[in-house]
From TrEMBL:
<feature type="domain" description="CobQ/CobB/MinD/ParA nucleotide binding">
    <location>
        <begin position="79"/>
        <end position="300"/>
    </location>
</feature>
<protein>
    <recommendedName>
        <fullName>CobQ/CobB/MinD/ParA nucleotide binding domain-containing protein</fullName>
    </recommendedName>
</protein>
<dbReference type="GO" id="GO:0005524">
    <property type="term" value="F:ATP binding"/>
</dbReference>
<dbReference type="GO" id="GO:0051782">
    <property type="term" value="P:negative regulation of cell division"/>
</dbReference>
<comment type="similarity">
    <text>Belongs to the ParA family. MinD subfamily.</text>
</comment>
<dbReference type="InterPro" id="IPR002586">
    <property type="entry name" value="CobQ/CobB/MinD/ParA_Nub-bd_dom"/>
</dbReference>
<dbReference type="InterPro" id="IPR027417">
    <property type="entry name" value="P-loop_NTPase"/>
</dbReference>
<keyword id="KW-0547">Nucleotide-binding</keyword>
<dbReference type="InterPro" id="IPR010223">
    <property type="entry name" value="MinD"/>
</dbReference>
<dbReference type="Pfam" id="PF01656">
    <property type="entry name" value="CbiA"/>
</dbReference>
<dbReference type="GO" id="GO:0016887">
    <property type="term" value="F:ATP hydrolysis activity"/>
</dbReference>
<dbReference type="GO" id="GO:0005829">
    <property type="term" value="C:cytosol"/>
</dbReference>
<keyword id="KW-0067">ATP-binding</keyword>
<dbReference type="GO" id="GO:0009898">
    <property type="term" value="C:cytoplasmic side of plasma membrane"/>
</dbReference>
<dbReference type="InterPro" id="IPR050625">
    <property type="entry name" value="ParA/MinD_ATPase"/>
</dbReference>
Length: 344
């Protein structure tokens, strides 16, 4: 209780508070990580929020808006996987596309933008590993590093989950821009699994895209909705607003059945190219393996070339990365054997 002892205690308290207030991002991340694994989540969130508010950690750890203003050569590309209507295989395609990029040595982050209805974690087999999501990052409750989940099977692949319960109104252009800026500094490709249509999550995902892959089925209604998305991206993206290079848009056709096309019950690849005016980056054949992979939490592309849909996704990734002359497979009916013709 001596005056000297009291002075020492006071000085130690001041130093401790200063360390919390002025700690670097790396130190804050270390403290947050240890808290994450030693405390219940609701306790951690409360403590971590106090760190973020006292040190402006949210701005620091989400990176800076200028990151998305940098030249394409100095940051990773943001690729939006989108569609005009639901149920066309968009999330299935995002999972396989991101996995394929990582398998080819590209450090890849895939982000689920479907706030309130996340599914990407199931397609990648990560649903049990989600602790923090995109909304936690945007609100400064955790760092990007904490929220990203590393894929155990594919080196270089990381996922950022959407919130399962939060309101879509939490998304803001500034917040999403900072988040994607931080990701694009760390990754070669940032793949955005956008919700269908033009609701909030879709608008935010498409706004910052460098590339957009429009997913559609070979039917007229799906193509009509896809055409609306093409126009929306051309007019409402950040690149469109700034008058810079346009978003590179390509078409991914899913659930393609050559036999139905031959019977004129479905649109052909050339029909869809003519309707939408986009180059085709891939054609994915109808396959039962897609449902099986979803149920087992494995991307279709990981099933190997023996499965036509997996081979088609692999071709799609190669074309996206520059092999534009790679021929389209699985677009013509298989020859009917003698026994099948004879016995039906």
């Amino acid at each position: 209780s001596s005056p000297l002892f009291g002075t020492i205690v006071t000085m130690m308290s001041i130093v401790a508070r200063s360390n919390v207030k002025f700690a670097s991002g790396s130190i804050l991340r270390q403290r947050s990580t240890s808290l994450n694994y030693s405390l219940p989540q609701f306790v951690y969130l409360k403590i971590n929020r106090s760190f973020a508010l006292s040190s402006s950690a949210a701005d620091e750890l989400l990176s800076h808006p200028s990151d998305l203003d940098a030249s394409p050569n100095s940051r990773g590309r943001v690729v939006c996987i989108t569609s005009g209507k639901g149920g066309v295989g968009k999330t299935t395609s995002a999972a396989s596309f991101a996995t394929g990029l990582a398998e080819r040595g590209k450090k890849t982050a895939v982000v689920d933008f479907d706030v309130g209805l996340r599914n990407l974690d199931i397609h990648l087999g990560m649903e049990r590993r989600v602790v923090f999501d995109m909304v936690h990052v945007l609100q400064g409750d955790c760092t990007l590093r904490q929220a990203l989940i590393k894929d155990k099977r594919t080196p270089g692949l990381f996922m950022l989950a959407a919130s399962q319960t939060r309101d879509k109104d939490v998304l803001t252009m500034d917040g999403v821009g900072k988040m994607l800026g931080g990701l694009s500094r760390e990754f070669d490709y940032v793949v955005l699994d956008s919700p269908a249509g033009i609701e909030s999550g879709a608008r935010h995902a498409m706004y910052y895209a460098d590339d957009a892959i429009i997913v559609t089925n070979p039917e007229m209604s799906s193509c009509r909705d896809a055409d609306k998305m093409v126009g929306f991206i051309s007019a409402r993206s950040r690149r469109a607003e700034e008058g810079s290079n346009e978003v590179t848009q390509t078409l991914l056709i899913t659930r393609y059945d050559p036999e139905r096309v031959a019977e004129e019950d479905s649109l052909s690849v050339s029909d869809m190219q003519e309707l939408l005016g986009l180059p085709v980056v891939g054609v994915i054949p109808e396959s039962r393996a897609v449902l099986q992979c979803t149920n087992t939490g494995s991307p279709v592309i990981s099933t190997g070339e023996i499965e036509p849909a997996a081979g088609a996704y692999a071709d799609m990734v190669d074309r996206f990365l520059g092999e534009v002359d790679k021929p389209l497979r699985f677009i013509t009916p298989e020859p009917v054997s003698f026994f099948k013709r004879f016995f039906g």
